[in-house]
């Protein structure tokens, strides 16, 4: 019996030993993760410098060193301190002879990650350290802090730094070379720009693109009392939307709409609707102006969304005032209503067979103060305004105006992805508006 137990125990030990040896063999065969290491040199190149140059770590250490604390908000958003010591970027680029025609600065890390800023954003816009930006806890990155006591700071490549502390005694070279920049406003999210292990800077003369303008849902027009308005743009990430509701032009210091970047939406689903909260409720005539601002591109056009409450004088058009002026341009999505800029989701165009201009039905109708309904079964569009009803059918030149059939020379059209276009002159004039067309510029002006 004892012999059997010994044999069993011995077999068990042999099995365990075999498993350990097998695991060791797999461990030896498996590739080891490559740990990122600090950069030891920096290349400055691009068509925006006179003399490309490569600097060693020793040369960087021999340059004048600048040290400061930085206030930082990331796109989660949370607030953090950084403190760093390194070389001013403007002095680094001066070594390569940055040209006056330089427009973009592209930073590349050892792992291939890149960040681009415009020259305006990096060197011409003033950037600050905000010592009182931590209103609430670190996790309350969506709670605006105080701009009091702001100190202007230089953008640097940090040779030593520490994240999450403002105590310089904790600085080390683990993240070197680290891009470090200040905030242009106390709510600006710059955490995604603090790129570590940078080993290349490209100075480019390429003209920066412009960010896409924000969109609103619902768009401008007559809405029920209590309506909530959501804003969005192409990425909803580090392209931030700033807005106003007092008629002023939005800037970096205006309220931010998309505090939580889209990359975190699934992780923050429980608070997304309360932090990236809709604007409203809309209970009176309201004007929302919005702009997209983000790194590496020019600010978008400022767009304006206006709302009237159903059943009020402003919605029914019984109030008096100056004429409303709507401007559109053939082939362009930019439009204006009383000087406020809008971005259409489809551009006006000309039906060349009959030389008639067609425009998106909802934008023009609602800009004129009319209501719009669409029947998905028949495709018919119904426009109502002060007791007048116009019913149009895509593809048909027969139109009902207050129940009476009228023939038009240009049928409405529906184009992908389901936008209905109407002949602008017929509809506008039926609604009591005047239409002027400039053949040289392609601009259409509607006055009511």
Write a structural description.
- This protein has 448 residues and is an alpha+beta fold.
- The protein has three domains: 41-204, Alpha-Beta Complex (Sulfite Oxidase, Chain A, domain 2); 209-320, Immunoglobulin-like; 323-448, Copper Amine Oxidase, Chain A, domain 1, CATH 3.30.457.
- Helix content is 15%, strand content 35%.
- It has eight helices and 32 strands.
- The protein has helices at 2-29, 57-62, 89-95, 119-124, 272-275, 313-316, 361-367, 424-430, and strands spanning 41-45, 53-56, 66-73, 79-88, 104-109, 114-118, 128-129, 151-152, 156-163, 178-180, 198-204, 215-217, 221-223, 227-232, 240-244, 279-282, 286-293, 303-309, 325-329, 334-337, 340-343, 349-351, 356-360, 371-374, 381-385, 388-392, 398-401, 404-407, 413-415, 419-423, 434-438, 443-447.
- Strands 2-1-11-5-6 form a five-stranded mixed beta sheet. A five-stranded antiparallel beta sheet has the order 21-20-19-32-31, with helices on one face.
- The N and C termini lie far apart (107 Å).
- The relative contact order is 0.10.
- Mean pLDDT is 87; it is low at 25-34.
Write the layout of secondary structure elements.
Layout: H1 2-29, E1 41-45, E2 53-56, H2 57-62, E3 66-73, E4 79-88, H3 89-95, E5 104-109, E6 114-118, H4 119-124, E7 128-129, E8 151-152, E9 156-163, E10 178-180, E11 198-204, E12 215-217, E13 221-223, E14 227-232, E15 240-244, H5 272-275, E16 279-282, E17 286-293, E18 303-309, H6 313-316, E19 325-329, E20 334-337, E21 340-343, E22 349-351, E23 356-360, H7 361-367, E24 371-374, E25 381-385, E26 388-392, E27 398-401, E28 404-407, E29 413-415, E30 419-423, H8 424-430, E31 434-438, E32 443-447
Parallel strand pairs: 1-11, 13-18
Antiparallel strand pairs: 1-2, 3-4, 4-9, 5-6, 5-11, 7-8, 9-10, 12-14, 14-16, 15-17, 17-18, 19-20, 19-32, 20-21, 22-23, 23-30, 24-25, 25-26, 26-27, 27-28, 29-30, 31-32
């Amino acid at each position: 019996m004892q012999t059997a137990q010994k044999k069993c125990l011995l077999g068990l030990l042999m099995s365990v030993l075999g498993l350990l040896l097998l695991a060791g063999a797999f461990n030896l065969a498996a590739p080891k993760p490559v740990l990122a290491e600090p950069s030891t040199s920096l290349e400055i190149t691009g068509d925006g410098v006179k003399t490309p140059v490569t600097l060693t770590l020793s040369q960087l250490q021999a340059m004048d060193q600048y040290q400061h604390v930085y206030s930082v908000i990331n796109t989660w958003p949370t607030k953090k301190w950084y403190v760093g010591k390194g070389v001013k970027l403007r002095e680094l680029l001066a070594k390569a002879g940055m040209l006056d025609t330089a427009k973009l600065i592209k930073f590349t890390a050892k792992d291939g990650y890149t960040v681009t800023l415009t020259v305006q954003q990096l060197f011409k816009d003033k950037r600050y350290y905000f010592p009182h930006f931590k209103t609430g806890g670190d996790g309350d990155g969506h709670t605006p802090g105080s701009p009091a006591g702001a100190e202007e700071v230089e953008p640097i490549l940090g040779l030593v730094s520490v994240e999450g502390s403002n105590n310089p005694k904790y600085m080390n070279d683990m993240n070197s070379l680290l891009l470090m920049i200040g905030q242009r406003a106390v709510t600006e999210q710059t955490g995604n720009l603090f790129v570590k292990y940078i080993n290349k800077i490209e100075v480019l003369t390429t003209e920066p693109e412009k960010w896409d303008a924000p969109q609103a849902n619902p768009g401008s027009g007559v809405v029920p009392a209590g309506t909530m308005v959501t804003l969005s743009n192409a990425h909803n990430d580090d392209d931030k939307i700033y807005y106003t509701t007092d008629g002023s032009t939005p800037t970096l210091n205006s309220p931010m709409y998309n505090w939580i970047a889209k990359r975190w939406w699934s992780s923050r689903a429980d608070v997304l609707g309360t932090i990236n909260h809709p604007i409203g409720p809309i209970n009176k005539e309201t004007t929302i102006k919005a702009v997209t601002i983000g790194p590496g591109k020019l600010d978008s056009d400022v767009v304006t969304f206006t709302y009237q409450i159903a059943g009020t004088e402003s919605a029914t058009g019984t109030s008096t005032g100056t004429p409303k002026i709507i401007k559109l341009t053939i082939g362009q999505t930019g439009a204006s209503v009383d000087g406020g800029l809008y971005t259409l989701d489809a551009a006006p165009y000309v039906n060349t067979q009959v030389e008639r201009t067609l425009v998106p039905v909802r934008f023009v109708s609602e800009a004129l103060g009319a209501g719009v309904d669409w029947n998905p079964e028949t495709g018919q569009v119904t426009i109502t305004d002060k007791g007048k009803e116009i019913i149009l059918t895509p593809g048909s030149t027969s139109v009902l105006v207050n129940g009476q059939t009228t023939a038009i020379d240009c049928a409405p059209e529906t184009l992908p992805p389901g936008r209905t276009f109407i002949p602008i002159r017929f509809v506008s004039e039926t609604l009591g508006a005047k239409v002027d067309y400039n053949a040289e510029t392609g601009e259409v002006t509607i006055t009511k």
